[in-house]
Amino acid sequence: MNALQQYIDLFRENRKVVEENAAPFLNEWRDAALDVLDGARLPEKGDKGYEKTSIEEMFAPDYGVNIARVNIPVDVAATFKCDVPGVSTLLGVVVNDRFVASRRLASGLPDGVVFTSLRDAAERFPELVGKYYAPMPGNISDSAALALNSLLLQDGVFIYIPDGVELEKPLQLVNIFSSPSPLMAVRRLVIAVGRRASARLLVCDHTQGDATRFLSSQVVHIILEDEARFEMCDIEESSALTSRHSTLVAEQKRGSSLTLNSTTLTCGNTRNDMIVNIMESHCETRIAGMAIGDRKMHIDNNTSVTHFAPKCHSNQLFKYVLDDESTGAFGGTISVTPGAPYTEAYQSNRNLLASGSARMHAEPQLIINNDEVKCSHGATTGQLDSEALFYMRTRGISEKEARTMLMQAFMVDVIDTVHIPGLHDRLLRLVDKRFSGQSGCNDCNTCKEI
Questions:
Q1: Is the residue at 441 inside a domain?
Q2: DSSP secondary structure string, 245-258?
Q3: Is residue 290, in this structure, part of any structural domain at all?
Q4: What's residue 13's pLDDT?
Q5: Is 255 part of any domain?
Q6: pLDDT at residue number 414
Q7: Positions of the chain with pLDDT lower than 70, given as ranges
Q8: Edge-to-edge, what's the strand order for the sheet holding 373-382?
Q9: HSE-up of residue 327 (Cα within 13 Å, Cβ side)
Q10: Is this model's pTM higher than 0.90 or not?
């Protein structure tokens, strides 16, 4: 039995339980998901775009799925204790696949702003959910992983910023895994930013306990209306037994601005797909990412930016530092359609291998179907600068400290793409601690209010 079939069988045998415990409107899409999954398979290592990552192997273990939505206790304060001050947010938490609003969130949202569960949003704002929820966002109709997410999805998170609202305080969503037995969480995040509205979102992934296997099946759908501005920073700091498959699909309308930053500090096996469709003219798109790997971590980031309209600008920057026996992969595609003249699109991937056993695979691509464009891409993989190491050693700096300083400096321009107040300095410190071999978290009271 392949990995996909075990979840299809689970659904068919327990369909009544799945649907009774789900937001009712999600049940409308399950038959369509089954149609997509009929005869489909999950990508395997060596498939186009998956040269170093097998989604089949990621989903193959016998994970439990909490279809009865049993409340699994979690000590939020013990799991998420950020010791870096200066990031004041409106906070919501997803424990496995259940959304919990903090007291600060419940009382701090401006009028008209929605940050709640998909079930709650569908009951209170059915027109909004009907307008923005899509089971297969971006018209990606052949993705088995997307269809599986829609098949098993029982709830999710819905964020809406009304027209003209500029949200001053950033939103924050903390995803936490907690279970005594292996568990797959099916997560969905829908974000809609209205005309001339703006918002910023920090998403953090954490695991409680290092001895349990977890799998995150996550889909993020972002819709930016005309002249909307949105920034999202996604930080993963999970355990070595945690696997994550995340698909982000963003759609930009006229004059909108999108900034995405993806940071992997610790993980087990991670695949992040970021798909951006620039539908109308005069849009700005910035995607940046950094990954720090050691031990046997595997980190795969794959981007696809398609320009459908003229006079738009996109820029991508991804950096990896890999140590021990860790592996990394980056695949990035820029597509410019015939209807998108005067496009400017750039992509850069740079990687450092800090050990002889670390491995990196990079495959940048340009697909240009228009003559009136400025586009470039490039990828480099190397080792730490031996001359810089020698110079620092002659100044009395130990080899370990010198290596750490060089790796920190290598990541600075990715961190500089973050504009959420306080988060830039927080990331600098988290990266500093990560290269120094420390955990990114320490004691504080950030989440004891939940």
A1: no
A2: EEEEEEEE-TT-EE
A3: yes
A4: 97
A5: yes
A6: 93
A7: 1, 73-86, 141, 385-393, 395-396, 399, 438-450
A8: 98-101, 90-95, 171-177, 198-207, 229-237, 257-266, 284-293, 313-322, 343-353, 373-382
A9: 12
A10: yes
